[in-house]
Amino acid sequence: MIDAHVSATSAPRAYLEEGPLIERVLDAIGLPAAIVGAVEASSHAAELEADLEAQASAAWRSAIATLAENPRVSCKLSGLGMATHSLAPEVLRPWIEGVLEVFGTARTVFGSNFPVDAMYGTFPELMTAVESALSGTGAAGSAAVLSGNARRIYRLGEHGR
User: Fold this and answer.
1) What three-state secondary structure class fits 21?
2) Vertex 129, ends 145 and 40: CA angle to 5°?
3) Can you list the domains of the chain with their CATH numbers?
4) What does each C-alpha distance from 125 to 15, 45, 71, 94, 143 come to in angstroms?
5) Segments in 17-148 forming alpha helices (H)
6) Which of 151, 136, 147 lies closest to 96, judged by CA?
7) How far apart, in whole angstroms, are the C-alpha atoms of residue 111 and residue 18?
8) Residue 149 — left, alpha, or beta (φ > 0 → left; ψ -120 to 50 → alpha)?
9) What is the pLDDT of residues 68-108, one digit of tens each?
10) Is the bond into 124 cis (omega within 30 degrees of 0)?
11) pTM score
12) What residues have CB less than 8 Å from 71, skipping those under 6 apart?
């Protein structure tokens, strides 16, 4: 089991080429904050910021789609506050939906980044945003993302854990 805190764009091929039987979890939804920050740092013009953020978002989506090609790779919904500097549902929804779009509910795992994300809101605010974004996945999909996948991937409850 590899739990990696890496940017989705940094080396997706290397991550995919690890042993075929090793489960992998991409933490912090692939660190889109690093991708967006790097793109934004390359320009100071306010009129270009929206376009640059769209480019960074597209780069992130492409990178996580590449990672999702390997059925042994899952993605953790964590570090959302760091990624967006907000825990508002309307801000988090596109990022959560982007993960769900390529990993589905079977390979998406919820995890918080508290206390760090407390800079951007409260844990109840985070849960409201996540549950709102998961509302279209049904009860089974939400249960898988919020607890079932973590139990399976990390083998929680096995061998006295």
Assistant:
1) coil
2) 100
3) 2-160 (3.20.20.140)
4) 32, 32, 31, 16, 19
5) 32-41, 46-68, 80-84, 89-103, 123-134, 138-143
6) 136
7) 24
8) alpha
9) 888 888 999 998 888 888 899 998 898 899 999 999 999 99
10) no
11) 0.81
12) 107
Rounded CA-CA distance 65/93 in Å is: 17
Distance CA 59, CA 45 (A): 20
Residue with tokens 């270009």: 48
Q: How many H helices and E strands in the chain?
A: 8, 4
Q: Which tokens is 27 given?
A: 């933490």
Indicate the burial class of 14 (C-beta count within 10 angstroms; 0-12, 13-18, 19 or more). Answer: exposed
> Could you give the CA distance from residue 72 to residue 153 in angstroms, rounded to a whole number?
10
